[in-house]
Amino acid sequence: MNWDQIKGNWKQVTGKAKEEWGKLTDDDLDVVAGRRDQLAGKIQQRYGLAKHEAETQLAAWERKASESWFTKS
Predict the structure, then answer these.
(1) Integer Cα distance of 26 and 64 in angstroms
(2) Rounded CA gap, 8 and 51, in Å?
């Protein structure tokens, strides 16, 4: 998956983001609206992480993305 696919399907992906980073609120995810840099910033803020660590976690999450994330069950 690439970030454009994640961004284009943001509403379906927000649940996966909340599973990964439970401290993110619905409001956080609404503000992010699929923007990768904003998501990294929110992760950094909520978890008190260095920018590099937030980026590392986000990159790992992005690599886990699959087509099943974008289909409604």
Answers:
(1) 21
(2) 24
Task: Enter the pTM of the model.
Answer: 0.88
How far does the chain reach from its first CA to its final CA, in angstroms?
Answer: 19
Tens-digit pLDDT profile for the chain (73 aa)? 789 999 999 999 999 999 999 999 999 999 999 999 999 999 999 999 999 999 999 999 999 988 788 766 4
Round to whole Å and give the CA distance between 60 and 43.
13
Contacts of 48 (CB under 8 A, 6+ apart): none
Could you give the CA distance from residue 41 to residue 44 in angstroms, rounded to a whole number?
5
Contact 16, 39 (CB under 8 A): no
Radius of gyration (Cα) for the chain, nearest Å? Answer: 11
